[in-house]
Amino acid sequence: MNKGLFLAATLATCCMVAPATARDANKTLYPIVFAHGMAGFNDILGYDYWGDDYGVFVLDPCDEWGEYYCNHDINAGQKSFVASVTPFQSSEVRGYELYQDILGYMASSGAQSINLVGHSQGGLDLRKAAKLLHTNKGRNVVKYGVSISSPHRGSPIAKHVWNLGPGVQSVVAALAEFYGDIVYGSGNDAYGGLKQLIHDDISSSDGVITGTKAFNTSYPASTTYIARPRSFLTAQQGSSMNPALYIVNEYFHNPDADGYATTDANGDGALGTGNGNPSDTDDDGLVGLNSQQMGYRLQWSECYGCLDYVYERTDTGYVSNLNAPPSIAMTSKKWVINQDHLDVVGVPPDTFDEMEFYAALTDYIADNGY
Amino acid sequence: MNPRRLRATVLALALTIALAAWIWTAQPDHRVGAATPPPSAPVAVLPLPNPEPEQAREAVQAVALSEDDHAFLQQLRIRFAPVMGSQHARIRLLEQLIAYLKAHYPDGWEAQLRAMLNALFPELAEALLAQFHKLQSYTAWLELQRSTLQGLSPQQRRQALWAARLSAFGNDAEEIWAAERRSERLVDALAAVDTATGLTAQEKLGAYLAAIHDNYGDHADRFLEQRQTEIMNRFISLETVQAELQALPDAQRNALLGELRAQLGMGPEALQRWSSLDQSRDQTWASGQRYMQERARILAERPREQQEAELRELRSRHFSEEDAAIIRDEEAAGFYRYGRSRRIGRE
Q: If residue A115 lies in a helix (H) or strand (E), which one and from where to where?
């Protein structure tokens, strides 16, 4: 075959296997490390969690000729790592395990710094990992630390389950209901995991200090450890929610979680209070709005037919002290993604486009220098 | 009863049943003993609901498309035309269309779908519409069966999901969920090497790598290069591999770890970095073990009022100032990192 014909054949075949895109996400300078939430790690390599609804990993680059099952929106050279920690444990344990996983990844890859993305409890874990990495390396290792739907200041559902509120007869059975039988696996501590997500120390007589309040003091969202702490917030109401979360909200406990207070004023397990209306899209089924902001908020802007956008927003304040955020950071509904707690990861069914969302986040991090 | 009301009624009924089942099956084990899963029982998974009736499809009124609609369709055409032979791509296309229509026509998005598909790929419109109804049917089943599926073992859940997918999509399901199928095969391969008898760790890794090559074909080497650490972590976390590693003295253990990493394709620089990390972890762990022994002695032998001061002094001898503060906080929260079994190769 002559060279011209070969080139033409190659191009034609290439066009048959790879969708064209208007704009690919730029490649980040440092790899993106994913930290999953409670439960979270089910099958191989965490792809079920950090994937679309069909099992394709969200940052799998299409970097080989003929490759189809990959994210066509990201740069072919994009680097990433999927960490795995004990599904049900405190963030003291999980954050330490995440730190160790990152050390291993840095040894394999030679990466000197990373960007860290954590969903749900993974957003707490990443703060501890960032601090341990700083201590180990004597420098800031984590550049962007992005939490998604994270209960930085506690979760009313965690407290409801702990208290065996209406509809809950067993902590473990309730967690199994949300997450499946993985809760029964060895090494898991369902109670430890749950206590972690209640803001104040749940018991003064159990000999340990637990909860997000103490954890936030030990592992702050400090720029010493995370160069740029940022957060996505999620909230949704009604039948668009994942059926499990819909049942919880409609029949058991619908959090009222968009009010400001300097303590857990309504005793629901999260810092702050409500505004008297639990049905005004102030939680994502598991976590309230007033718990989710760390650093600046990020806005996700869906673009139909093109790559989505992520923007940094400063008009809802900056949360540096997680235990004392400004009022607007606990009450504003601006830039909140209208999705439930599980939509933003690969738990079907949903209509959320995980591939585009994470491509847009990758693009945002890359465009901002990391 | 119109189809929409029928679906809503079925969904409400199923949610009520699921709710009742949850309350009925929950066991009062609050704060007692170790968690054990409830005994597994045969669980009936409901069959897939029928796709949208034919007359309902015909009743859909075509609606005029706006300029924005046409611009969006043009983007989709550019993006998907080259891959419309793939069933997975067709589902992705439908998902993007649904998202767009829900955002722009929240009250009549389904009515708009046929017009959009006809304008987008006229020759494929009917096939895509049929695929849409199958997707709707499968999604409705998934929502109705969520609670039941959660109660199944992973193997049972996988079987139920695939039965529903094959029922809805026929053999196209294999193409739509090809990535998931590939991951499942690797999960199975990993489980098989864990229980294989008479094999060394290297032989087990060899068998696992062969499974990866079988599944990924020409893309296997690239997959291994990209996901080296994840594959390593999953492999060395296997119970039988950990047991073999735990039984070895430090030097032999680290040599074996190095061989396994080289087998995975890590180059000399990566192996050197890992070697340094292994040595550092060994030293830290040995120091941590001594700390835990001395800590236990202080708690057992010293008067209560002296313990805190002595523990503080002990931490300062074993750890840097920053690490000592972290260890103190961990212990206050009930976590003793050196008090649990070490995960070789992971910490």
A: strand A114-119
CA distance B105 to B107: 6
Q: Which residue of A has its CA nearest to B17?
A: A247
Choose among A171, A177, A143: nearest CA to A158. Answer: A171
- Beta bridge partner(s), residue A80: A32
Task: Give the residue from chain B lying closest to A108, CA to CA.
Answer: B270
Is there a contact between B83 and A17 if contact means CB atoms under 8 Å apart?
Answer: yes
Element counts in chain A: helices (H) and strands (E): 11, 7
The two three-digit tokens of residue A331, written as one number: 């009450």
Interchain proximity B18–A44, CB inside 8 Å: no
pLDDT above 70 for A41: no
The two structure tokens encoding residue A69:
């099952």
- Give one DSSP letter per residue of B198-266, joined into a string: S--HHHHHHHHHHHHHHHHGGGHHHHHHHTHHHHHHHHHTSHHHHHHHHTS-HHHHHHHHHHHHHHTT-
CB A35 within 8 A of CB A129: yes
Distance CA A292, CA A146 (A): 11
Nearest CA in chain A to B91: A54
Beta partners for residue A297, in sequence order: A231, A313
Q: Residue A142: which of A79, A85, A83, A227 has the closest Cα?
A: A227
B87, B169 Cβ separation under 8 angstroms:
yes
pLDDT, tens digit, 9 for 90 and up, residues B300-317: 999 999 999 999 999 999
**pLDDT exceeds 80 at position B11:** no
- In our burial notation (b when 16+ CB lie closer than 10 A, e otherwise), range A120-156 reads bbbbbbbbbbbbbbbbbeeebbbbbbbbbbbbbbbbb
- Whether B88 and A106 lie within 8 Å, measured CB to CB: no
Q: Tell me if A81 sits within 8 A of B229, measured CB to CB.
A: yes
> Contact A220/A152 with Cβ under 8 angstroms?
no
- Residue among A321, A309, A300, A293 at smallest CA distance from A150: A293
Bridging pattern class, strands A296-301 and A226-232: parallel
Tens digits of residue pLDDT in A227-263: 999 999 999 987 777 766 776 777 678 899 999 999 9
| Sequence-distant (≥ 6) Cβ neighbours of residue A116 within 8 angstroms | A32, A33, A35, A102, A126, A129, A130, A142, A144, A145, A146, A226
Q: Which residue has the tokens 């003793």?
A: B336
Share of chain B above pLDDT 90, in %: 73
Cβ contacts (< 8 Å) between A96 and chain B: which residues?
A: 330, 335, 337
Question: Which two three-digit tokens encode residue B298?
Answer: 């202080």
Nearest Cβ partner of A351 from B22, B102, B150? B102
Secondary structure (DSSP) of A155-167: -HHHHHHHTT-TT
| Residue A74 in this model has a pLDDT that exceeds 90 | yes
CA distances from B145 to A108, A355, B113, B193, B320 (A): 42, 25, 27, 33, 53
**Over A233-273, what HEC string results?**
CECCCHHHCCHHHHHHHHHHCCCCCCECCCCECCCCCCCEE
Token pair recorded at residue A71: 């994210």
Q: What is the pLDDT of residue B52?
A: 56
Q: Please tell me the predicted confidence (pLDDT) of residue B269.
A: 98
Q: What is the pTM of this model?
A: 0.89
